[in-house]
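Field notebook, page 346. I keep forgetting to write these up properly, so this time I am using the form the group agreed on. The chain and the ligand, pyridoxal-5'-phosphate, are recorded exactly as supplied. Prediction of the bound pose follows.
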Amino acid sequence: MIESLVRKTVLDFKAYSSARDEFTGVDYVFLDANENPNDEELNRLNRYPDPYQRTLKKRLSEVKEVPSENIFLGNGSDEVLDLIYRVFCEAFKDEVIICPPTYGMYSVLARLNEAALIEIPLKPDFQLDINEILSRKEAKILFLCSPINPIGSSLGQKDLERVIKEFRGIVVLDEAYIDFANHESWSKRIHEFPNLIITQTFSKAWGLAGIRLGLAICSEEIIGYLNRIKPPYNINTTTQQMALDALNHNYRTSTWVREIISERERLKGVLENFSIVDYIFPSDSNFLLVRFKDSKKVYDRMLGKGIVLRDRNKELYCESSLRLTIGTEKENDRLLLELERLDNNK
Ligand SMILES: *Cc1c(COP(=O)(O)O)cnc(C)c1O
């Protein structure tokens, strides 16, 4: 029963009714929204965007092979995550679970939304502590990230299935890196699991972090609640157009993904031979988490050479580890050159 998990305020909430909710035809004369009628560039930017992004969702539904009705779009997945909190989490009352090491936004948003945060760390093999999770019967939301940021590997599919089935609240499965993984998205199985929300993003494989577009794929019932509370025009016209264009050229994305994975494997092969490297975590993503003998020395030296890496040293299991995003071949060559110099004590 999803309804029993939803905040009372949201159940009773009457959404803002926007001027563009009902009339989307091209033949109308629009004198209802106080827009400027002049459209000199003929790009329709003088008009408010479609609040439900119908054209974009239709194309997205073909590419992702899930029905349009099961797609919700946000201003980055960060907005989607925030809206999920606001649908389900009563401030100062409800609990959410995260499984460190994990993506930082889940706990930032817990603080912002005044939710009680329960941390149930991954086990040392980077898999879920299922019994501990299922013992928290009151928790409203479980945030899972797979492939895992910042580790790079994926959660076990059998474990995931068991947790999604048996957890009594909402399970958010963040698949920001799914395009780089060698297993399927869970998005095609949402019909089996009414409590499952998959989130994905245009910021990684699609190469569009700048347009801010994230998605939730879940039951129509949950989408109804998200639509009720979202800002009416949360996805701007330019973003909708750029995303549509990317979806219509999705061979580009497939090519990038293949290149990035091949560069990841090349980088891994070279790094393995450096004595400054202690361990390279397995990766299903567009980054490698690398434990160095002295990560601070590596971090500072690379920064001095103009190469910015992500220090994950403070995260659980990530002592002395840096996260290296896979760049272009040229960028990766530059990184390898500087690491090799450091490795040779030069
Ligand atoms: C990068 C990333 C996102 C993307 O967030 P956007 O707001 O869509 O840019 C989401 N989740 C994880 C785990 C990420 O690493």
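OBSERVATIONS:
- Residues 77 and 154 are 19 Å apart (CA to CA).
- The first strand starts at residue 71 and ends at 74.
FOLLOW-UP: compare against the apo run.
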